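WARN no homologs supplied; continuing
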Amino acid sequence: MHILSFVIFILFALLAAFLVFNYPKEKKTTPIEDSDKIKVLNDHNFDHQIKRGIILVDFWAPWCMPCKTMAPVLNSLSEELDGNAAVAKLNVDIQQSITLRYGVKKIPTMVLFKNGEEINRYTGFRTKDFLLKEIAKVKQV
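OK structure emitted
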């Protein structure tokens, strides 16, 4: 019985050593700065910002790699939109009450609002062309 316990202990020790030395290190990526045209939302300005017009709100977190891949897309999108539509970002780690209110469970999630009403939501990576078409559909209605 002692030999079996010893073998199991050695196997767990080897597994622990393997995990410690081979665990993938977080890639050090340079954060992408948001465009000046992207609005940063929080508890104080969220309801006011979504109240009028069309706004695409990106629910994101700084540790989320798919969120980081969306940053250049959203920057480009915000630069291309005219005054009738806008892009905004909401950090789910900081603004948890709004995240819970809208039932955001996965990130990135982008919620498209028109005059304060949720029109549609998109989860995961989306292209700029896709988002432009979705915003154009809402403009027509």
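Strands lie at 39-40, 54-60, 85-91, 109-114, 117-123.
OK
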